[in-house]
Amino acid sequence: MQPRESIRESPVTLRPTRAGDAELLNLWRQEPSVARFQPLGAVTLPCLRAELAAQNHDDLHHGRGDKFQWIIEYRGQPAGWVTLVATNWDHGLAEIGYALSTPFQRRGITPSALRLLLRELFLHTSLERIEARCAVDNIGSRKVLERLGFEREGLLRGYFVLRDRRVDNYLYALLREDFVD
Ligand SMILES: CC(C)(COP(=O)(O)OP(=O)(O)OC[C@H]1O[C@@H](n2cnc3c(N)ncnc32)[C@H](O)[C@@H]1OP(=O)(O)O)[C@@H](O)C(=O)NCCC(=O)NCCS
Questions:
Q1: Which among 34, 75, 79, 123 has most CB atoms closer than 10 A?
Q2: 15 lines ligand 1 (CB under 6 A)
Q3: Residue of minimum CA distance from atom 19 in ligand 1
Q4: What local confidence, expressed as pLDDT, does residue 28 receive?
Q5: Is 98 in the pocket of ligand 1 (CB under 6 A)?
C-alpha cells in the first residue's frame, strides 16, 4: 500500500505480507501477551509460509480472494500484523484481526495501522462492512475499535474456547458510511 501525502510522516506503515514473514508471525503468535485474549491455533511453519505465499493482494481490488495479511511497521521495524478475511464479496463483508508484538503494544500503533487499512478498503475495494470480534475482557482491543468508530452490535456468548474456558466476545462493525478519515 503506497503511503499517501498526509501520512508520509507517520511512523506507522503497512505492507502486504510475503512468504518470508512466516518465521516472524510464528514467533509473534507464541508471545503470551499476543495469545492472552485470542485462541491462536497451532500452525506449522511450512503451512504459514504456504498460506502467505498464496495471498494475492491484487485480488482485493478485484473483489475476489478470501484472506489477506499485512505487516504493521513502526519506524520501519516489523511490529505486528493485520488479517482481513473477506467473508462475502457479493455483500461487501469482511472481518479484521490484528496483533502487535509485546514491545510495540500500548503505543497507539494499532489505531494508526487500522486507519490506513480502512481508508484503503473503503476507497479502493468494494467492501462495505468490516467486522471485528474480541473477547469481552480485551479492553485494549475494544478501545481501539471504538476509537475508530466501530459500533458494538452484540454479545456473542461462549464464542470461543480459550485455555479450557468458553469466552464471550463482542461483535463490532464499521460501515463505509461510518468511516471518518
Ligand atoms: C489490543 C491491541 C491490539 C491494542 O493495540 P495498541 O496499539 O496496543 O493500543 P493503543 O496503544 O492504541 O491503546 C488503546 C487504548 O487501550 C489501552 N490498552 C491497550 N492495551 C491494553 C491492555 N492490555 N490492557 C488494558 N488497556 C489496554 C491503552 O491504554 C489505550 O487506552 P487509552 O486510550 O484510554 O489511553 C494490542 O495491545 C495487541 O496487539 N494485543 C495483543 C493481541 C490482541 O489482543 N489482539 C486483538 C485481538 S481481538
A1: 79
A2: no
A3: 140
A4: 98
A5: yes
CATH number corresponding to 5-127: 3.40.630.30
Is the C-beta atom of 140 inside 6 A of ligand 1? yes
Question: Is the Cβ–Cβ distance between 26 and 46 less than 8 Å?
Answer: no
Q: In Å, how far are 27, 30, 124, 166, 175 from 102, measured between CA atoms?
A: 11, 11, 31, 25, 30
Q: Which residue among 115, 131, 141 has the greatest number of ligand 1 atoms within 8 angstroms of its CB, and so is best to mutate?
A: 141
Q: How far apart are CA 59 and CA 160, in angstroms?
A: 30
38 lines ligand 1 (CB under 6 A): yes
| 75-134 residue pLDDT tens | 999 999 999 999 999 999 999 999 999 999 999 999 999 999 999 999 999 999 999 999
* Residues 142, 108 contacting (CB under 8 angstroms): no
Nearest CA to ligand 1 atom 20: 140
Per-domain boundaries in the chain:
5-127
Closest CA to 70 of 127, 111, 4, 114: 114
pLDDT digits over 157-168, tens only?
999 999 999 999
Residue keyed to cell 480472494: 65
Query: Is pTM, for the whole model, over 0.90?
Result: yes
